Amino acid sequence: MLDNIGKLVHQQRRSLNLTIEKLAERSGVSVSLISRMERGDVNNISVKKLTDIAQALDMEVGDFFIAPEMSDINTLALVKYLTGLPETERAHVSEVLMQVINL
């Protein structure tokens, strides 16, 4: 589980063009912990630190606990986008996306 979290932290940090040092500054979490997380060398982390990292990355803690096969940053962004739409609009956008995918 934490390996996947580390992968997401790394992907999102890079997509925001943040260095590990800048993420550490934004989150109040040590450079060492973030670096170890991204390498998959962390066996546990406090909810507080995980929340601070998520907020610094413009994410929610729940994003870290999505099924691994659904948890790359682009898939998470798409799910968030679709979830934020009104139901009828979400259905329409989903239909259009499926048409594009099936081309």
Give an overview in words.
The longest helix has 15 residues. The protein is built from six helices and no strands. The chain has 103 residues and is an all-alpha fold. The chain folds into two domains: 66 residues, lambda repressor-like DNA-binding domains (434 Repressor (Amino-terminal Domain)); 31 residues. Helix 1 crosses helix 3 and helix 2 packs across helix 4.
Structural class: mainly alpha
Portion in helices: 55-70%
- Uncertain segments are none
Provide the domain count: 2
Q: For this structure, what is the CATH class of the largest domain? A: Mainly Alpha
CATH architectural group of the largest domain: Orthogonal Bundle
- Output the radius of gyration: 16 Å
- Rounded mean pLDDT is 90
Proportion of residues in β-strands:
under 5%
Task: Give the number of helices.
Answer: 6
The sequence of SSEs as H and E is: HHHHHH
Count of strand segments: 0
What's the CATH H-level homologous superfamily of the largest domain? lambda repressor-like DNA-binding domains
Keywords: DNA-binding
GO molecular function, one term: DNA binding
Pfam family, one: HTH_3
Protein name: Helix-turn-helix domain-containing protein
